[in-house]
Amino acid sequence: MIYYGVMVDKLLFEMLLVGVILFYLSLKNFEIEKELGIASIRAFIQIFAIALLLGVIISINHPLYTISVLGGMMLFAAHIARKRVPSTAGFYKASVFGVSLGSTIVIIYAAFLNIFPIDARYIIPFGSMVIANAMNSTALGLNRLIAEVKAHRNSIESKLSLGVPSNIAVKPHVIDSVKASLIPAISTLEALGLVWIPGTMSGMILGGADPIWAAQYQLFVSFSIFTANTIASIAATYLATRYIFTKYHQFSEEFLRSLI
Amino acid sequence: MGLEQRVKSSNLLKYKIVVSNLVKKFGNKVILRNISFNVRDAEIFVINGPSGSGKSTLLRCLNRLIEPDGGEIYLDGVNVFDLDPLELRRRIGLVSQIPAMFDGTVQDNLLYGPMFHNIRLTRDDLINILELVGLDENFLDRKAIDLSVGEQQRVAIARALTLKPKVLLMDEPTSHLDPENTRIIEKLILSLRDKLKMTFIIVSHDVEQSKRLADRIAFLENGEIKSVKENR
């Protein structure tokens, strides 16, 4: 009898495939096998750890625990987003603010619309998808902002020299940064259904749900992710400009030092 | 008002700019050490010195694009730290080394600053300002980015003039220009000083240029003013 499903033995076979890939990369001197290996092991440990934790949280199903898990995810997401950006004072706060604001609004809105029961089993997986995506758009937005300000420093300084407030002088670059950070999210929306069937829909169909029902859930998740991405990127980049400039509309010394 | 204060304020009013004991540090590194000098009304004051001596930092302290760590700066007897930095930058303009043109036409560039200071300029006003920098009316509708570097530098000067500044700071204004354009900009500075009675503080590493332009030359080295000499 054939038994379908991912059991530990089949997972080990899958990891064997990853091992073969790593061996090949090592053989051909790609020099990313170490990083990929560590990432794979981390993913393995992290996903089982969160599965164990989720099992406990779902069985307890207390709002305090659910909120703590989501809060922890937001802080980690902000930390990871911040790490991808050249060191600048205040950018961690901007990341936390962006990721938290975008994710919280979308999660509360979904709960308000009764998309799923207010239950750890639903809120945490939904929240994690939203937070992870908000993290990516925040990192992209902040990274682009630094690059934009660095590339256009002379132009921004020329505007400041004309007595233009710093928020106005930097505005075109904030807009470009937000737009750049949303390109992956827009591409994802464009490719939805045509190029790929994303996680929620695939998971529901694999679990036996009606494809139309699964599509509705997927659309809701995709739109939620897009909304969270946009809010997170706008909030983080705008807040970050407060750390790029001083209250006297000058480049902050911390920011200038980070460019060296 | 006590005698000491009256003497101080009469000294402050005697000069367009008074800089007293200016200090600037970046981290532990001292960039400017107790800088003091005065600049007269309608004077061309050139700050000369080698690379890394603190010339550009000093210039940017004067309009508070960089915040000094100590000392005082007065413009027409008014402590610049009592002014809103945005208003200060209207009164003390800056033209940088490499002209940065904003999006749009020359007209868009010229109207950018006045828009934020509620200064209304007509097309005739803009033509007059362009004429001051040796450009004609036809330039108004040209895309700023398409101009040559020399023309862009003249637009940058015109852009600063739209705010009717009392003092114009210039950071190595010809370092990216060929000899022909350098000569044009130098002539322009001298004519603007005569026509508008404006005060210029110019940073230059070029000793010969300093001699061609300056009424007085300050020599800056390792963040210290070593000398201030009359040139005319």
Keywords:
heterodimer; A: mainly alpha; globular; B: alpha/beta; six-stranded mixed sheet; 10 strands
Summarize the structure.
The complex is a heterodimer of chains A (about 260) and B (about 230). Chain A is built from eleven helices and no strands.
**Average pLDDT number of chain A:** 89
**Strand fraction of chain B:** 25-35%
Helix content of chain A: over 70%
**Tally of DSSP helical segments of chain A:** 11
Distance between the termini of chain A: 65 Å
In terms of quaternary structure, what is this? heterodimer
Please state the CA-atom Rg of chain A, rounded to the nearest Å: 21 Å
Number of helices of chain B: 8
- Overall radius of gyration of chain B: 18 Å
Could you list the spans of chain B in which at least 5 consecutive residues all have pLDDT below 50?
A: none
Shape of chain A: globular
Structure explained in plain terms:
The complex is a heterodimer of chains A (260) and B (232). Chain A is mainly alpha-helical. Helices cover 79% and strands 0% of the residues of chain A. Chain A has helices spanning 8-27, 33-60, 63-83, 91-112, 120-151, 153-161, 166-169, 171-191, 199-206, 211-244, 253-259. In chain A, helix 3 (63-83) packs parallel to helix 5 and helix 4 packs antiparallel against helix 10. The radius of gyration of chain A is 21 Å and the shape is globular. The mean pLDDT of chain A is 89. Chain B has 232 residues and is of the alpha/beta class. Chain B is built from 8 helices and 10 strands. Chain B has a 6-stranded mixed sheet with strand order 6-7-8-3-9-10, sandwiched between helices. A 4-stranded antiparallel sheet of chain B has the order 2-1-4-5, covered by helices on one side. In chain B, helix 4 runs parallel beside helix 6 (149-161). The longest helix of chain B has 18 residues, at 179-196. The mean pLDDT of chain B is 93. At the A-B interface, helix 6 of A face helix 3, helix 4 and helix 6 of B.
